[in-house]
């Protein structure tokens, strides 16, 4: 029987939005520990035989063996390149970047070297050029593998709109940035301390050591003097810039066209920008917040949709997802919106299906708002080439499936599925600079490496709370960190730059503030702050604590309060989490950043405060832990355990 959600039906029907179908591809699947590929009809076209398999690109699928060596298979299942590379990227422009030993090269689709492994570093092709490094200097090759710009720059970035930022030593011995053309000639000679790519004939630059940003025009002339703490690229004739703590907008002459009054301001997309204002003095910017109100402005700075939403997405194809009150829904450019309190989370309409979350489970609406696929999944992805990957519970186990747009399973496998980060996930760095370096695997903050190798170049140190985007699933070899955490290499993007980090100090939840108040925040206060409340529990007698009520947060986190008085406690359910992630949050929350995750029991003291941990493992996997915290301001007990793909934290405070 179909369940109708009529309040949004007409709205979605009028929008009638679909996305163009992507090119036909093969889908990686795993059965009995081996990976293979199916076609969009669910037929196995490459039988499970590989230790690891990744999606296809340009007709070639990336595979890996137990030793984490990479190769390629074609659509007929022929292993064109046997696994032998330390690392290999997807094919781009007919070439794939590979690493053999400690050197990089490029192969073609026949597995032959277009460029033999000779470079210390190399990037994928962009605009028919690939950045390479040889003897400590950077240059570029073309899509035939020929060096067209000899390595000569101390730093460089990829080409964009025909220009590449490069850093070189000037006659007076300084190393400054400029721009080159695809022929290798200077378009703007090195004279800047920092630069960004051109966008709409303007580029953001830093002209002196003060570190403030300004803008130059297409001829390299400084049009807008350095004065901003943070900037975004010009989109049309307008750019978002931050001065001190507030954002505003300027035009290409540097004139303020929209006053500096926003806590966050995004780029304009088709004449509309998302902005928010806040009553909070917190420096942390989170997607959901009870103190922030999101609205939308036009290029004149006028609110076309007043700030009223607890959260709102950027407009895409004339609609945006929003949260108001306790419900999710959709809003159009005219400000008309439809919200349904039963929808806890709503996703974009893709290939005629919109994934929604109702009562902790996922299903799909069609473009008329009718329930096309029942609400029954504990996880669900968007449709791609007619298929979506979903996860549903079946007894004590789980079923991983690919379903078609009717909800029919065309492929499935059963078992207990381990939580992993997925491509596109937004993740937060939970490592703090105050954590000591106890061995080579533990860093001050979180180092971003060029490659999954401790000997590769460090791009930057990711600060505590930094937001990154997962670009792949984690690589397979586990590494034990010096503080007892187990981590994997994961490829991520940070501020437009790709690199590799250990995922042990990454989380789908923003970390607690680095400066811990006294007494430390309760978990409820923490989730209020980092996620925002979507549904408050029903009002209770003010003279006693709420009993057995549910509080709903973004990302599907739920809190239940039990009992009253001294016997009261709270239980938090966090989907797609791990016991280890929960441990990192708790120790950061309580300002015990240096606490170790033991094999059994450990105790850490700091002044009059103490932090004791008891950890339980099953099959060498962390399954449960108890944290006893004491301070003069009060004591707490945390119990953490895992059930399926969910982690539960019980807090007695």
Helix content: under 10%
Largest sheet entry: 9 strands, antiparallel
Structural category is: mainly beta
| Shape assignment | globular
How would you write the strand order of the largest sheet? 53-54-55-56-61-60-59-58-57
Please give the count of helices: 3
Q: Give the uncertain stretches in residue-range form.
A: 1-23, 280-290, 434-444, 538-548
Q: Radius of gyration over alpha carbons?
A: 26 Å
What portion of the residues fall into strands of 2 or more residues? over 45%
* Secondary structure: number of strands: 61
Mean of all residue-level pLDDT scores: 81
Span between termini: 46 Å
Commentary on this structure:
With 653 residues, the protein is mainly β. Among the domains are: 426-507, SH3 type barrels (Roll), CATH 2.30.30; 523-652, no CATH class. Helices cover 4% and strands 50% of the residues. It has three helices and 61 strands. A nine-stranded antiparallel sheet has the order 53-54-55-56-61-60-59-58-57, with helices on one face. Strands 51-50-47-44-52 form a five-stranded antiparallel sheet, with no helix packed on it. The chain has a four-stranded antiparallel sheet with strand order 4-5-6-7, with no helix packed on it. A hairpin with a 7-residue loop joins strand 28 and strand 29 (273-278). The radius of gyration is 26 Å and the shape is globular.
């Amino acid at each position: 029987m179909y369940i109708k959600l009529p309040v949004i039906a007409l709205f979605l029907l009028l929008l009638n939005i679909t996305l163009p179908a992507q090119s036909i591809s093969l889908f990686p699947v795993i059965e009995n520990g081996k990976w293979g590929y199916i076609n969009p009809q669910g037929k196995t076209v490459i039988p499970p035989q590989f230790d690891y398999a990744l999606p296809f690109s340009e007709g070639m699928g990336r595979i890996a063996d137990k030793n984490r060596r990479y190769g390629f298979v074609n659509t007929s299942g022929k292993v064109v390149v046997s696994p032998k590379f330390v690392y290999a990227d997807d094919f781009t422009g007919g070439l794939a970047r590979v690493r053999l030993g400690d050197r990089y090269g490029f192969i073609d689709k026949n597995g032959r070297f277009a460029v033999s492994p000779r470079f210390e570093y190399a990037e994928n092709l962009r605009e028919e050029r690939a950045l390479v490094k040889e003897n400590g200097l950077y240059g570029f090759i073309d899509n035939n593998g020929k060096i067209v710009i000899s390595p000569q720059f101390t730093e460089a970035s990829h080409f964009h709109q025909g220009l590449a930022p490069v850093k070189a030593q000037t006659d007076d011995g300084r190393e400054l940035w400029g721009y080159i053309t695809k022929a290798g000639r200077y378009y703007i000679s090195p004279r800047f301390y920092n630069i960004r790519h051109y966008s709409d004939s303007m580029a953001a630059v830093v002209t002196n050591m003060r570190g403030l940003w300004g803008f130059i025009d297409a001829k390299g002339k400084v049009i807008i003097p350095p004065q901003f703490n943070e900037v975004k690229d010009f989109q049309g004739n307008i750019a978002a810039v931050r001065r001190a703590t507030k954002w505003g907008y300027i035009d290409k002459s540097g004139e303020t066209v929209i006053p500096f009054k926003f806590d966050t301001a995004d780029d304009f997309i088709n004449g509309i920008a998302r902005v928010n204002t806040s009553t909070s003095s917190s420096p942390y910017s989170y997607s959901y917040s009870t103190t922030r109100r999101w609205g939308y402005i036009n290029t004149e700075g006028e609110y076309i949709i007043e700030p009223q939403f607890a959260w709102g997405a950027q407009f895409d194809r004339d609609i945006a997802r929003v949260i108001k009150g306790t419900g999710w829904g959709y809003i159009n450019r005219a400000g008309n919106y439809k919200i349904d309190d039963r929808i806890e989370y709503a996703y974009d309409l893709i290939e005629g299906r919109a994934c929604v979350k109702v009562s902790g489970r996922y299903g799909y609406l069609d473009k008329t708002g009718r329930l096309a696929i029942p609400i029954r999944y504990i996880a669900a992805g968007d449709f791609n080439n007619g298929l979506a990957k979903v996860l549903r519970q079946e007894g004590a186990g789980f079923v991983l499936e690919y379903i078609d747009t009717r909800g029919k399973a065309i492929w499935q496998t059963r078992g207990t599925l381990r939580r992993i980060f997925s491509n596109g996930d937004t993740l937060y760095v939970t490592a703090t600079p105050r954590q000591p370096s106890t061995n080579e695997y533990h860093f001050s903050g979180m180092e971003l490496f060029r490659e999954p190798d401790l000997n590769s170049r460090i791009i930057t140190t990711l600060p505590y709370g930094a937001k990154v985007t997962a670009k792949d699933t984690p690589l397979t070899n586990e590494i034990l960190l010096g503080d007892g955490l187990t981590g994997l290499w994961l490829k991520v993007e940070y501020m437009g730059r790709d690199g590799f980090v250990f995922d042990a100090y990454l989380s789908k939840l923003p970390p607690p503030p680095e400066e811990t108040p006294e007494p430390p925040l309760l978990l409820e206060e923490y989730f209020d702050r980092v996620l925002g409340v979507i549904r408050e529990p029903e009002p209770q007698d003010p003279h006693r604590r709420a009993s057995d009520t549910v509080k709903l947060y973004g990302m599907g986190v739920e809190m239940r309060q039990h009992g009253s008085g001294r016997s009261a406690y709270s239980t938090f359910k966090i989907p797609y989490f791990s016991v280890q992630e929960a441990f990192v949050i708790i120790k950061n929350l309580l300002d015990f950043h240096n606490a170790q995750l033991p094999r059994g029991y450990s105790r850490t003291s700091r002044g009059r405060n103490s932090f004791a941990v008891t950890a339980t493992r099953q099959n060498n996997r962390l399954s449960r832990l108890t944290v006893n915290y004491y301070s003069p301001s009060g004591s707490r007990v945390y119990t953490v355990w895992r059930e399926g793909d969910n982690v539960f934290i019980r807090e007695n405070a």
